[in-house]
Amino acid sequence: MTPVGDARAVGSQNVSTTRPAPDAAGAPERSGHAERPVNRRGTWTARRPWILDSVIAASVFAYTLPLTLEYRPQGAVLFSAAVLLCLLMCLPYPLLRRRTPLTVLGVALGASLLQSLAGIGLLPANIMLVFALYAVAARCRPALAAAAAAAVLLWLGFAVAPFLRAGHLSPGEAAVLAVTVLWAWTWGALSRVRRERIEAVRERARQLERERETLAAIAAAEERERIAREIHDIVSHNLSVIVVLADGASAKALSEPERARDTMVQVRRTGHEALTEMRRLLGLLRGDEDAVRAPQPGLAQLGALVDASRRAGLPVTLTRDGDASPVPPGIGLALYRVTQEALTNVRRHAGPGARAEVTLCCRGEAIEVRIADDGRGMSRSGPPGDGHGIAGMRERVAACDGTLRAGPRPGGGFEVVASIPLGARS
Fold it and tell me: Histidine kinase/HSP90-like ATPase domain location, by residue (predicted)?
């Protein structure tokens, strides 16, 4: 293939690099208006390069063959040698140029050297050296391509020296031949650089696509974790309250039927609240506008949360210190869920007779909620749990750039303290 032809092939093969990279399955690329399949390999000849290579080699050989007839009067051996050398210079080009260009150049250079040693003058078939040098420069390492160009120039100097001494060739014409060799080498090197840059762009596009898929997977995992945490907080708290109330109602059903009836009313109310919150959450997942506009629980609902815990049989006190009205809704929801989960853990693990204190403090640049109890703490002998409560609280607070501390109190019991800066993301 000529330098011009190969450059066009490279350009046609890579014309789509400014467009978004297709997926691995070769799906149609997306344009600004519609989808259409894109020919990634260029023109028909670019998809079948051996055809153009064969046409070039056959044309050069056909043009050179009649010129070898002038050696026929000098003997059959010299004539046969001229024909054979022309064939050696032309035949490897379409067969090996794309796979082993160095072999093509080596065979052509060896044949040209034998031609000069045999006293056969320059023939049009020697132009195959230029094509082979271009292929080497376009497909091999720069150092190897430079060495190949130097070898061709050395042969050229050796071949034209007799013509210069005899005056059959002017220095200017010899310089044109040398410039042609250098031009082929330079064009090939530029084609190689262009191809490497295009491949680098494609690899970068593939890397960006892999990174995009990874980020999407991470975002999906984080979203699943957030949904699981929200469902855990809703279901765990309300079911815990329902279980405690149901146990109390069952124990009082015969001795105190009125109190048992009131307790079952609380069970029904708690169940309705759980269903309401679950419907709101499912509405958010489905994109329901009514669910999006529905207010989420926050610090204003802490009183109702504490009252529900009292009705479930847990003595709880709530203390507020400072004005929490300017707290963003996201931070308020996080602190509400922390308090809800902490009170659920008190009912599960603190044991009978335990008391809890909820303290909300909003001063300076941070807001803090503290839930403490005087029970036995989180004992292994307590009711079974899934072990995600404290981890979920910590993740929820960390999402707001806050910190959470949970552990036994020095005087007995357990304590959970969540602190979130007011300037944090919500």
Answer: 330-424
